[in-house]
Structures are given as C-alpha cells and as structure tokens.
Amino acid sequence: MKLLVDSSSSLLLSLLLAQLSLFTSAHPVNHRRLQELDKLTNQTRNLMKVTNDLLKEHFSDLEHLEHHRFKSLPVMNHRASDVHSLELKPTLSLLHHDLTMFEKHFLWLNNASRRHHHPALPKLTEMMSLIKALNTTLQRQMGRVDAPKLTLVTPSLPPQLHNQFEVLQSSHELLQQFERFCSWAHRALISLRHNPR
Fold first, then answer.
1. How far is the C-alpha of 109 from the C-alpha of 131, rounded, in Å?
2. How is 143-175 classified by DSSP, letter by letter?
3. Where are the alpha helices (DSSP H) in the chain?
4. Rounded to an integer, what is the distance from CA 36 to the centroid of its chain?
5. Residue 25 and residue 73: Cα distance in Å, rounded?
6. What tens digit of pLDDT does each residue of 129-179 get?
7. Which end of the chain has less neighbouring CB within 10 Å, N or C?
C-alpha cells in the first residue's frame, strides 16, 4: 500500500514539474510577443500623429475636395466589430501588405514633392522613415509567428504631376487614406494585444 501511495505521489509530482516546465518555457515567448505588439502599437500611434499633423499643417484648406487619383491603395472597409475577431497571423500579413502598398505610394509622392519643392517635404520624409521602421518591426514579428507574406501588386500610380496644386491634391488624398489605415491598424493591434489568437 505504501508503495502505491509513493508511486502515485511521485507520478503527481512529475506531472506538476512537467506542467511547470511547459508554463515557464512558453511564458517568455508570450511576453516577447506582447512586447512586440506594444512596440507595433506605439509605432502606429506615432505614425498616426505625424499623419494627422501633416494634414492639419499643410492640407486643412483642402478638406472639401474629393479625390480619386489612386486606384491601387488598400481599401479600408473594415467594420468596428471586425476588430474583436482578428487573428494574429492573417492580421500581421494584411498590415504588412497594406503598409507596403502605402509605402510605395508615398515614395512616388516624395519624389513628386521634391520636384515641386513642396513645404511638407521634411515632415513627409520623417513619415517615410517611420513607415520603414514600422514595416521592419512587422516583418520581424511575422517571422517569429510564421505569418505568410501576401502577394504585392505593382501600384497603379497617377501620371506625372505638373504643378504644386496637383501635388497638394495627391498628398491630401494619400494622407487621408493613410490616416484611416493607421487608425484601423492601431485598433487592430490593441485588440491583438488584449485577445491574442
């Protein structure tokens, strides 16, 4: 009888130690993932602020204009309720895809702004470096969780801009769309941070 009690105690102790080992080995991974999601959230919030500042400082008088110059921008048709059902891998893949598409459009705009000496150029250049940093963090996190990269298409960009007003119109449209993207990305990352799937 004593042998039976000793062996069952020993078995119980072994099981507890095995579970503890699993818990402690999984904990650093989850902690690192949460840190990365925090970093992504902060970078996105910072990018949203820079975008908002750019719109207020340089394009506030263009609010009434409707533009449809960019045909290949990511479509932001997410509903508020979609945020609560997001999964980590597909969301990171989509964020990376859409951010890369915006980056290609902003590179085109940056070159056009240089040609026409647009006053928002320094802030636009700062924004582009923030986009690159966010994209790098996204790629690192995607690699850690094995999130697939989505296929990128070549963006359909407008023809060459001929004057500063066309640069203003294009900048305004692109920044407005990007502000929507940043807002959705920020909410999505907060949701992933609190409900990792």
1. 14
2. HHHTPPPPPPPPP-PPPPP-SHHHHHHHHHHHH
3. 2-58, 88-115, 121-145, 164-194
4. 12
5. 42
6. 999 999 999 999 999 999 999 998 888 887 777 777 777 788 888 898 999
7. N
Does 140 reside within a domain? yes
Instruction: Measure the CA–CA gap between 23 and 120, rounded to whole angstroms.
Output: 51
- Looking at the 3D structure of the chain, how many domains does it have? 1
pTM, 2 dp = 0.79
Give the per-residue pLDDT at 88: 92
Query: What per-residue confidence (pLDDT) applies to 46?
Result: 95
* Residue 54: both structure tokens together: 């750019």
Is the pLDDT score of 128 beyond 70?
yes
CATH code: domain of residue 84:
1.20.1250.10
Q: Which two tokens stand for residue 70?
A: 């960019």
CA distance linking residue 125 with residue 109, whole number of Å: 10
Residue 168: domain span: 34-194
pLDDT tier, 21 (very low <50, low <70, confident <90, very high otherwise): very low
Asked if residues 158 and 109 have their Cβ atoms less than 8 Å apart, the reply is no
